[in-house]
Amino acid sequence: MSGQGGAMRDTGTDEGYTTADGRKIGGVAMEMRNITLRFGGVVAIKDISFDIRWGEIRAIIGPNGAGKSSMLNVISGFYHPQEGEVLYKGKRRPKMRPYQVARMGIARTFQNIALFEGMSVLDNIMTGRLHHMKANLLQQALWWGRASREEAENRTQVEKIIDFLEIQHIRKTPVARLPYGLKKRVELARALAAEPAILLLDEPMAGMNVEEKEDMSRFILDVNDEFGTTTVLIEHDMGVVMDLSDRVVVMDYGRKIGDGTPDEVRSNDEVIKAYLGVAHE
Amino acid sequence: MPDTLLFAMEATLNGLTAGVMYALVALGFVLIFKASGIFNFAQGVLALFAALTLVGFQSGQIPFSHLINAMFGTRLHHFGWNMPTLLAIPATIAVMILLAILIERYILKHLVNQEPIILFMATIGLAYFLEGFGDIMWGAEVKALDVGLPKGMSGAVDDMTFAWFGYGFYIDRLELWAAGIAAILVASLTIFSQYTKQGRALRAVADDHQAALSVGISLRFIWVLTWSIAGIVALVAGIMWGSKSGVQFSLSLIALKALPVLILGGFTSIPGAIVGGLIIGVGEKLFDFFMQPVIGGATENWFAYMLALVFLLFRPQGLFGERIIERV
């Protein structure tokens, strides 16, 4: 998949780092600067800054109500912070609508699954490629010129993803009939079909059994490995996240209380407090 | 062949062509309902408004002339030229698209994420507004609409059936044309929704707003698109019904005839709208034909609603509607 190739060159002076398992992590792809988000009097996010690097798996964790999903919604343009700014490829991103953010190459999944229930799995994944289609209406209607070529390309790409996520057997099934775990996988497939520069996953493992969780973890790692997709994921299950991610942001009550590698975060006092309560003396 | 059978056949044919006319109106409802889950009460008024605008353009009427005359004491009424139909139809389509943009801008945009019932109420308001607005713009008198479609008895059908059965069927040529136009309309709508990017986006928006946004679809664009298409379908319905019985207020009431069609065909199915229309058309004519001697005439006024009631009791989702699945 393309999409990352060009992006990797945009690293500027910042060279990134190499992970323990030898993957090269690039420069800063996106930076959150002093983000504050309020809903009326409620402060959902309070002055949070962190960055996301090309090619890494970046996790945002925290207890329920910590503001993780709000953070993801800020990144994907569903919410607009009152203060602070989002920098993408080193430039300040103006206030954008969610569909514009999506067209910029930032794909996402949802905590409560937002699929097109009435469509088949294949059709759902094809919608991920909508903004890769450039042929005009007449060409499309008559299946002529650019339209047929594009459709062929799109189908190839989609088939690749279907193979990759091992969902060949349900390709024609209406999504409404699928069990929960498979729905989550189809949603991931749709996001991947867009060939995103950054992939946002909102609790990809929520509500899954152990086996499904293991599958999903494997897919997330494989996607990152195979396509080099920069991935931001939200979880409140600490265990899963620590095995998956390169760097972790920890949130609690809308504040950032930790940021670093899984090991650093694990030994952070504030994080331990937030997750386990105050330690007994 | 016995006369009764021949008469029944003629009534069936007439029912089929009348059914197409109902289906044309129902189509507009289905389009908007599919794309936005809104039951558009204003669809009938849209057809009236489209027909009024078309007649206004054709006859070179000055829009708002009554209002201007009343305010400034002038005596404006016509520009003094007639616009050819081939020019007036694209001009009317442009007006319907502009209307779609305004509806999105001033109504729908502010009602995002509201309950369907709220949106439904908004379309009732729109219907009343548009009705009055159409009157102010083009005047309230009954107007004849002629876009050059043939009218009256079809000689070909008459000759053919006379040669076969020794009895010539009466079929209105206008309704035959309506059938042809409806077929073209349905074919192009189907191609549009199944094979184009915009069509796929439209289906996506109909299914889930949030998911549609996340794959880069602009909801506002899709809504304008949907209402534009509904406006164009309304124009087609307005032309057919206006040519048949003149452009007047009662044109907006054909929307009520579309209701039973929708209940039969299902609110979300384009083929359903066609089949539903045909069933109502044929059912109406045959029921009248057979029952008239028993219970008297004018059954056409209520037959469709009674049939819809029966359907509501036994198959509430209609013949082609999405199955209502309840997960326990």
Descriptive account of the structure:
- The complex is a heterodimer of chains A (281) and B (328).
- Chain A is α/β, with parallel strands linked by helices.
- Helices cover 36% and strands 24% of the residues of chain A.
- Chain B has a domain at 28-249.
- Chain B has helices spanning 3-36, 43-58, 65-72, 85-106, 116-138, 155-165, 173-195, 197-207, 209-214, 219-245, 254-265, 270-295, 303-314.
- In chain B, helix 2 packs across helix 4.
- The N and C termini of chain B lie far apart (56 Å).
- Classes of the chains: A alpha/beta (281), B mainly alpha (328).
- Chain A binds chain B through residues 76, 78, 97-100, 102-103, 107-110, 114-119, 123, 126-128, 130-131, 133, 135, 137, 140-141, 143, 176, 190-191, 194, and chain B through 188, 191-192, 195-198, 200-201, 203-204, 206-208, 210-219, 322, 325.
The assigned structural class of chain B equals mainly alpha
CATH fold category name of the domain at 1-105 and 231-281 in chain A: Rossmann fold
As a percent range, the share of helical residues of chain A equals 25-40%
Parts with pLDDT < 50 across at least 5 consecutive residues of chain B = none
| Principal-axis shape of chain A | globular
Order of helices and strands of chain A: HEEEEEHEEHEHHHHEHEHEEHH
List how many beta strands of chain B DSSP finds.
0
Please describe the biggest sheet of chain A, giving its number of strands, its sense, and whether it closes into a barrel. Answer: 6 strands, mixed
